[in-house]
Amino acid sequence: MTRSTQQLVDLLEATHWRIFLLTTQLRDGTATAGEQNEVADELTELVELLRSHADDTESGVVPTSS
After folding, report:
1. Domain boundaries, the chain
2. What are the two backbone dihedrals, phi and then psi, of residue 63, each rounded to the nearest 5 degrees?
3. How far apart are CA 39 and CA 44, in angstroms?
4. Closest CA to 41 of 62, 11, 66
5. Tell me, what's the pLDDT at 62?
C-alpha cells in the first residue's frame, strides 16, 4: 500500500469513528453545534482527499494492486 493510500485509509477509519461518536451524541442530545461543525469539516476534507486519490489512481500516479 502506498503512503498516500495508507493516509487515506487512516483518515477513513478516523472519520468512521467520529461519525459513530457524533451519531451517539445526536441520539442522546449531547452533540454541540461545534462538534457537528467539526465533523462536517472533517467530512469535507475526506471528500476532497478521496476524490484526489481516485483521480491519482485513475491517472496511474497511485498504483492499484493486481
Report:
1. 7-54
2. -75, 150
3. 9
4. 11
5. 80
C-alpha span between 7 and 45 (Å, rounded):
12
Q: Quote the pLDDT of residue 1.
A: 87
Please give the average pLDDT of every successive group of 10 residues along the chain, which has 66 residues: 91 95 98 98 94 93 74
Cα–Cα distance, 47 to 66 (Å, whole number): 25
Query: Which residues fall within 8 angstroms of residue 25, CB to CB, at 6 or more apart?
Result: 31, 35
User: How much is the pTM?
Assistant: 0.79
CA distance 53 to 9: 11
Q: Are the beta carbons of 3 and 63 closer than 8 angstroms?
A: no
Could you tell me which of 12, 22, 13 has the C-alpha nearest to residue 54? 12
